[in-house]
Write a structure and sequence with these properties.
34% of the residues lie in helices and 26% in strands. It is α+β, with helices and mostly antiparallel strands.
């Protein structure tokens, strides 16, 4: 299958999945506000005391570094976080919850969400956008399986195209750090 055709197929699958989740949770959708949000990582934020995380997305880890084109060391996690904030600002996404991760105690759990925003009349999945632009990765589970397979395919396309952070040879892939003893899918 040709590179653009494969990308469009994966993008369509992501949109169909996101659309199904949005339709199912239409009464629970919410917008990410443009103010009062604290971006915690490149895949999570906090608003009004509630923590949110993009479903199936893994950002770069803070404290991991890559070498930029000028030879300087950049914190990969900080760059991922800045890009999430930028995409939220530009897309003005609405989100639908898909699951909640319980923390225990009196702390509220993390709400896993799928978020979409409109650009030029087209709906974009925020997680897919982060991944296809090379600033986030497909999350994997403890058995090294992708949480959401289309995101892994999109990651591969971004890697081949050397998009975003993939442009740097020493990119510290977060899944390698999180599950170092297990092979990557």
């Amino acid at each position: 299958m040709c590179h653009p055709c494969r990308f469009l197929g994966v993008l369509c699958a992501s949109i169909v999945f996101a659309s199904a989740v949005l339709a199912e949770n239409a009464d629970r959708t919410f917008a990410i506000p443009q103010t009062g949000v604290t971006f915690l990582t490149g895949d999570s934020w906090q608003q009004v005391g509630q923590r949110f995380r993009l479903y199936g997305v893994q950002s770069c880890l803070r404290g991991t570094f890559y070498t930029d084109k000028a030879g300087g060391h950049q914190d990969c996690g900080t760059v991922s976080t800045a890009m999430l904030a930028s995409f939220v600002r530009d897309l003005k996404p609405t989100c639908s919850p898909v699951a909640q991760i319980a923390v225990g105690g009196s702390q509220p759990g993390t709400l896993l969400v799928i978020c979409t925003g409109e650009v030029h009349g087209k709906m974009l999945d925020l997680g897919a956008t982060m991944i296809t632009q090379g600033f986030a990765f497909a999350a994997i589970d403890n058995a090294s399986h992708p949480v959401y397979l289309p995101y892994l395919i999109e990651e591969g396309i971004a890697q081949q195209a050397r998009k975003g952070l993939w442009a740097f040879a020493d990119l510290p892939h977060p899944n390698s750090a999180l599950l170092p003893a297990k092979p990557m899918p």
